[in-house]
Design a protein that fits this description.
single chain, binds 1,4-dihydronicotinamide adenine dinucleotide, alpha/beta, 297 residues, Helix Hairpins, Rossmann fold, 8-stranded mixed sheet, 2 domains, 11 helices, 14% strand
Length: 297
């Protein structure tokens, strides 16, 4: 089965370089009309450049169709204008990849609240703003595919990235609820946790691995998650051509004999035993499993 994006309009934020550029190029190669958004700033989000235009030129040189947008994902008016331009030119918006991001790494002890907020603002609020800008269009069209970009830091933690990790796991929460709210309108929402050698990670990768972790090798997972046959409410890890699935799980748990912290301590092994754990598809399943435990099931 070949996967085509013919007739689809896609927006990729932060697509002036790194992963976003790789996604934009491959979407265009497979027939999508692509909005290449990028503020063109440095790794910490300061400054501006023409990065988006350069990627549009690359797409056009390869025979594809694209438009550049230099707006910031944190600016609601700019994102609304970007979506309006895409709709006016191409008649709709079918795909949104929320990919734009910055880093302000520091140990939590040294991190100011401004540094914490700035990172939440671009990754989490920026993704909410861009998603809000396409949401009604996708609902009206009865078609939408949205990808949030999380990170192993959000899922599992990383020293020096408290702000980034909070933003990234926040995006998982956002995706999980939007997957539920979008289901009736054929709007599917997924999450990718990429690993690639880009300017964001170049100083973290051992030099001999830089060539292995090409951004293009994350694109297959990202593109599948925004394709017609995409699942919804999934989290994929992807890097160097390896694709993994990540889950937020819940153990069976234990009904305490007595509601005391001592009972929790006594039952610790059973509470954390992963035998029979589930992957809830909505928050209400927690209460349902609690009722089952109380009924001795
Ligand atoms: P990158 O720095 O090359 O790409 C991020 C892009 O977002 C840049 O081109 C930047 O100009 C743009 N951007 C920043 N603030 C923006 C704003 N307010 N509005 C519009 N554009 C803005 O880095 P990379 O690695 O390609 O990152 C892409 C995404 O993948 C990010 O969300 C990052 O957090 C995430 N990620 C990357 C990993 C990796 O291994 N490279 C690991 C985990 C997550």
């Amino acid at each position: 089965m070949s996967i085509s994006f013919e007739g689809r309009v896609a927006i990729v934020t932060g697509a002036g370089g790194g992963l976003g550029r790789a996604y934009a190029l491959e979407l265009a190669r497979r027939g999508a009309k692509v909005v290449v958004n990028d503020l063109g700033g440095s790794r910490d989000g300061t400054g501006h450049s023409d990065a988006a235009r350069a990627v549009v030129a690359e797409i056009e040189a390869a025979g594809g169709v694209a438009m550049a947008d230099g707006g910031s994902v944190t600016d609601g008016a700019q994102m609304a204008a970007m979506v309006a331009r895409a709709r006016d030119a191409w008649g709709g918006v079918h795909i949104l990849i929320n990919n734009a991001g910055i880093l302000k790494d520091k140990s939590f002890a040294k991190m100011s609240v401004e540094e914490f907020r700035a990172v939440i603002d671009v990754h989490l609020i920026g993704s909410a703003i861009c998603t809000g800008a396409v949401w009604e269009t996708m609902r009206e069209q009865n078609y939408g595919r949205i990808l949030m970009t999380a990170s192993s830091t959000g899922l599992y933690g990383n020293f020096g990235q408290a702000n980034y990790g909070a933003a990234k796991l926040g995006l998982v929460g956002l995706a999980k609820t939007l997957a539920l709210e979008g289901a009736r309108c054929n709007v599917r929402v997924n999450v990718i946790a990429p690993t690639a050698a880009t300017r964001m990670t170049e100083d973290l990768f051992p030099p001999e691995l830089l060539g292995r972790f090409k951004p293009e090798l994350v694109a297959p997972a990202a593109l599948f998650l925004v394709s017609e046959e995409a699942p919804t409410n999934t989290i994929l890890g992807a890097g160097a051509g390896v694709v993994q699935a990540a889950y937020v799980t819940l153990t069976k748990g234990v009904a305490l004999d007595e509601p005391t912290p001592e009972a929790v301590a006594a039952q610790w092994a059973a509470i954390t035993d992963r035998t029979g754990e589930i992957v809830p598809q909505a928050g209400a399943e927690q209460a349902m499993t609690i009722m089952q435990r109380l009924q001795g099931r």
